[in-house]
Amino acid sequence: MFDLPKDVLFNLERLSKACDVNKNGAKFYSKLSESYRNQDFKELDFSQAIAYALGRMPATYSVIKYVLEKFKNTRESFSNILDVGAGVGALKIALKDCEVAYTALEKSETMRKVFRILNGENTTIYSEDFHKFRNKNRYQVVFASYFINEIENKKATLRKIFELAEQYVFILEPGTPNGYKNILEAKNLAANIGWYPFLPCATQNCNLNSKDWCHFSIRLPRTKYHANLKNATLPYEDEKFCYIIFSKKKTEFFCNNTIIKRPIKKSGHVIFDVCTNNGIQRIVRTDKASKKFNWGDSL
Ligand SMILES: C[S@@+](CC[C@H](N)C(=O)[O-])C[C@H]1O[C@@H](n2cnc3c(N)ncnc32)[C@H](O)[C@@H]1O
Q1: 167-189, pLDDT tens digit by residue?
Q2: Ligand 1 in contact with 62 (CB < 6 A)?
Q3: Residue 299 is assigned to a structural domain of this protein
Q4: Which single residue of 74, 123, 165, 232 could bond 142 by disulfide (Cβ 3.0 to 4.6 Å)?
Q5: Are residues 85 and 225 in the same domain?
Q6: Residue 167 shares a structural domain with residue 265
Q7: From the CB of 130, is ligand 1 less than 6 Å away?
């Protein structure tokens, strides 16, 4: 589990009071969820932007932390990053202890306002629509979390993301068939313009059944106001997500053997579905250590 830092939780609590979460938060959040369900992404008003920070950002923050950890385990690194569709700054918070020059791009005024409340005034945030962004700078990393899902003209957007990046592109999406479709679209485009899948894929040609979708799951703690907002009783929630990291450098496919489904634990053996250099393979292991591996781990 990845907990939000204490100062951010403190600021979120202040915001929860500002929008009177107990009384109105659930109403704001259910409106927000409805627009996500209907793929109807209107400009959020300030209360909805707060509801996003309280209700969705703990999950996007956890997913971002998870993906950054996976990247860190490869011993690769970067020193500057552009966060497109930065929202209220989940990535900025996740990079808090890293020496990385962070730049955001976020078109929504209310999301930028909440971003500043949570992260202070010192961050460069381009306030443009990504479609109109004409910056000549390039960034070692371009990072797009939960962004492609809600943007029109996905192909042109993805192309622009790759054009702005020098070394790595990170795409994180909801763990749904649609989210995975966006990952595949990015993967196809990348193959045509000289970028390589780096994580979690170990091969360009995925042999996953076309009705299936490659996704992962992370458990995150729910604070009291987080639960109130969602009318939830459990003290945690499971967030499903898809991700892919591309590299400009032609690496031999990183043989990370990612476990792409929840392992099936039987008495005496464990069944794993694993992404290998030769496509997805079912591996059965009987050793004691195999019990410790989880969905998303490298076998
Ligand atoms: C679901 S939020 C994700 C926020 C953040 N990346 C996260 O993971 O929590 C998507 C964000 O993209 C922004 N966005 C959508 N279309 C955009 C565009 N054309 N240009 C810039 N930002 C955009 C929205 O305003 C919203 O803040």
Answers
A1: 999 999 999 999 999 999 999 99
A2: no
A3: no
A4: 165
A5: yes
A6: no
A7: yes
For residue 252, being part of any structural domain is answered with no
Mean pLDDT of 144-168: 96
> How far does the chain reach from its first CA to its final CA, in angstroms?
20
Q: Which of 218, 264, 260 is nearest to 66 (CA)?
A: 218
pLDDT category, 21, cuts 50, 70, 90? Answer: low
15 and 126 belong to one structural domain:
yes
The arithmetic mean of pLDDT across residues 21-32, rounded, is: 72
Domain span at 51: 6-247
Task: List C-alpha distances in Å: 84 to 157, 168, 185.
Answer: 10, 14, 18
Measured by CA distance, the residue closest to atom 26 of ligand 1 is: 87
Mean pLDDT of the chain: 90
- The verdict on residue 130 lying in a domain is yes
Could you report the per-residue pLDDT of 105-153, keeping only the tens digit for each? 999 999 999 999 999 989 999 999 999 999 889 999 999 999 999 998 9
- pTM exceeds 0.85 for this model: yes
Query: How high is the pLDDT of residue 37?
Result: 74
State whether the beta carbon of 106 lies less than 6 angstroms from ligand 1.
yes
DSSP letter for each residue of 171-217: EEEESSHHHHHHHHHHHHHHHHTT-EEEES-S-SS----TT----EE
Residue with CA nearest ligand 1 atom 13: 85
Q: Which two tokens stand for residue 220?
A: 């995150």
What's the pLDDT at 287? 95
Q: Which amino acid is at 22?
A: N
Q: How many residues would you count in the chain?
A: 299
Rounded Cα–Cα distance for residues 104 and 142 (Å) = 10
Flag whether 298 is in a domain: no
CATH number at residue 192: 3.40.50.150
3-state secondary structure of 243: strand
